[in-house]
Design goal:
The protein is α+β, with helices and mostly antiparallel strands and 198 residues long. It contains five helices and five strands; from the N terminus they run ααββαβαβαβ. Strands 1-2-5-3-4 form a five-stranded mixed sheet. Helices cover 54% and strands 16% of the residues. β3, α4 and β4 form a beta-alpha-beta unit. The protein folds into two domains: 60 residues; 134 residues, 60s Ribosomal Protein L30, Chain: A.
Length: 198
């Protein structure tokens, strides 16, 4: 074997070894980048999981009982079948026009509004990152009459300085048909106002 042939073998072996080490370095560099990227994704996923867990815990704590425990039972009755509160005596709240509150009931209506307002404020300040929805729903023989009940109550509270205008709370007014009135069965509660918080 000649010297030039040995040099050729050595140089091709050296080139092969050099190429092997360059490829190995590139593979190692790529793997290190992939590992760093996976660690970043894993850290981001952990942060998201922690955030979701904290939100789930807060949402769990917004069960109907806990949310409404602060509503004064002097003014509100909890209806567990529909998970809402009914304003006490709301079936006798309005004069025949369904817009004017009986004068002798005005003080208790104002106190009921203050109680609801305090509960909503406490809820919204305890959970500022959650959007809350307050629904004041009137129920009557027609949805228009039910809406009028709810709107009249809302306007009465508003005119007496009781508002539910918070950054994370929206107030909705709705009217529904009280089916018991249409059916004429013995469970007729008359016209009334319900309070939902979602």
């Amino acid at each position: 074997m000649s010297i030039s042939h040995k040099r050729g073998n050595l140089s091709s072996n050296a080139i092969f070894l050099l190429a092997f080490f360059v490829i190995l370095a590139l593979v190692m560099f790529s793997l290190a980048g992939i590992i760093r990227q996976q660690k970043k994704l894993s850290d981001r996923n952990k942060k998201q999981e922690l955030f979701i867990d904290s939100l789930e815990r807060k949402i769990d704590s917004l069960s109907h009982k806990q949310v409404f425990l602060n509503l004064d039972p002097l003014y509100f009755v909890f209806d567990s079948s529909f998970c809402h509160y009914r304003l006490k005596n709301s079936s006798q709240l309005f004069l025949m026009d369904n817009q004017t509150i009986w004068p002798q009931l005005e003080p208790s209506v104002i106190e009921a509004g203050k109680s609801l307002n305090a509960s909503i404020n406490a809820l919204c300040s305890s959970f500022p990152e959650v959007a809350h929805y307050l629904i004041i729903e009137g129920r009557s023989s027609t949805s228009a009459a039910g809406y009028m009940l709810a709107e009249s109550l809302y306007r009465y509270w508003y005119s007496n300085g009781i508002t539910f205008d918070l950054a994370n709370c929206r107030c909705f007014i709705s009217g529904e048909v009280e089916l018991n009135q249409l059916k004429g069965n013995g469970n007729n509660h008359g016209d009334y106002v319900s309070i939902f918080v979602l």
